[in-house]
Amino acid sequence: MLRPILALLVLTLSSLHARTIKWYCDPGTTNRMSNGQAMDASFHFELGVFKDGFVPTSANTAQWAGKWVAAQSAAYNPTTKYFTGSYTVTSNASPFVENAQAYIWGLGGINNSEWILLRASSWLWPQPGGIDPVALEWNVANANQVILGSLNSGGALMQSASIAGGPMTYAQWRDAELSGVALNGPEQDADGDGIPNVMEFVLGTPPQSVNPLPPITVSVVMDGGVSYLQSSIPRRADRAATLRLERSTDLLSWSSGPTATQVVSETPLLLVAKSLLPVTTDQPKQFLRWVAELP
Asked: Span of the secretion signal (predicted)?
């Protein structure tokens, strides 16, 4: 099942009323997976809240992804054994209402089957407030509630737990996010915001509320003295879907694959690819789009 969208915009945010949350783990700490091996580059961490009053437990992990709303993601660096993020709070739009319980969720391993979820009782979502020179600091080491995995045990700061079942499928997401909604097919658009459901699934955006796209970038890059179009797109690592870049010169015929496009870099949080058609004066017009594909 395929559905294209055009790479449209880069979002910027500025406000005179903001509060910053610095969330992180201390560098150089020992962090392990459930099998005792060190956390690797497949891991990333998300700062967010659960919506609809959902309370996560080790018994309802199958429902987490459908109720989770991430504010920000940060990649884990296995060399420095560290992740960090800095998030600016500019509103209390649902589900990020004042005093909502905030969590840090780590995911990684094969098919993102290793999870750790934790919080501190003091991690309550703040009001935007005024210009705040002192950021809130939410350090994993200060967490006192571990819902899944372990903290400060066996010589490790963090140790993830193994979750059976692998990434969330579109059907699981549809049942959780679009239950009772008629326009629940992958190519349909439940909220009418121009983003098809399958892209909301891949990007992790709410499918029943109008939202702008996450920041999708398009730029011109140089390689060997030749200019090419390149694009990056954020994604949810816990979704059973793939993304690919396609290019066109007329918006009618689209091409991808080893002779048309190339993946430049790929992480659990971000996919970067470029067109292999040079940007020249003879061929100045070129278009890119991202296509989501379900298994």
From this structure: 1-18
Stated length of the chain: 295
Q: Please tell me whether residues 122 and 238 are part of one structural domain.
A: no
Average pLDDT over residues 95-120: 93
SS (H, E, C) 85-145: EEEEECCCCCCCCCCCECEEEEEECHHHCEEEEEECCCCECCCCCCCCCCCEEEEHHHCCE
DSSP 8-state secondary structure symbol assigned to residue 111 = G
pLDDT single digits (tens) 132-162: 557 899 999 999 999 999 999 989 999 999 9
Model confidence pLDDT, tens digit, residues 35-46:
999 999 989 999
pLDDT tens, residue by residue, 166-211: 678 899 889 888 989 999 999 999 999 999 999 999 988 889 988 7
Structure tokens that stand for 133 in this block: 């020179």
42, 142: one domain: yes
Which tokens go with 227? 């200019």
The pLDDT of residue 113: 86
**Alpha carbon distance 121, 102 (integer Å):** 9
Q: Are residues 115 and 197 in the same domain?
A: no
Are 108 and 43 in contact by the 8 Å Cβ rule? The answer is yes
DSSP state of 82: B
Helix (H/G/I), strand (E/B), else coil: 269: coil
